Amino acid sequence: MTVIEVGKLRVDVGARSAAYDGKGIEFGATEFRLLELMARNAGIALSRTQILERIWDYDFDGSSNIVDVYVSQLRRKLKKQGANGIIETVWGVGTD
User: Fold this and answer.
1) What distance lies between CA 54 and its chain's CA centroid?
2) Which of 64, 86, 93, 67 lies closest to 18 in space, CA to CA?
């Protein structure tokens, strides 16, 4: 059983569940994979290309905003549970 804890966020990979401060949060399959990737790489700025290759398994063409859309969905769901600011954008660091 793999459990990743980042502050008050707990991601149980085996059970495919997540909770913040003890409160469960429902995620779709792709959202959960993205959350897991980010939790495993806490403190590391990931580029859009890295995320696309690991989650969607295709090359970034420079025009897709799919990563932005999914990160926004994650932020919205986490914010509802009080986890505002847990996902940070680091301008210029995670870009390719």
Assistant:
1) 12
2) 86
Helix pair angle (66-80, 29-40), 10° resolution: 80
Measured distance between the N- and C-terminal CA atoms of the chain, rounded to whole angstroms: 34
- CA–CA separation, 39 and 10 (whole Å): 9
User: What SS3 state is found at 40?
Assistant: helix
User: Are 8 and 83 a contacting pair, CB within 8 Å?
Assistant: yes
What's the pTM value of the predicted model, to 2 decimals?
A: 0.86
Tens of pLDDT, residues 17-43 = 999 999 999 999 999 999 999 999 999
Q: How far is CA 6 from the centre of its chain?
A: 12
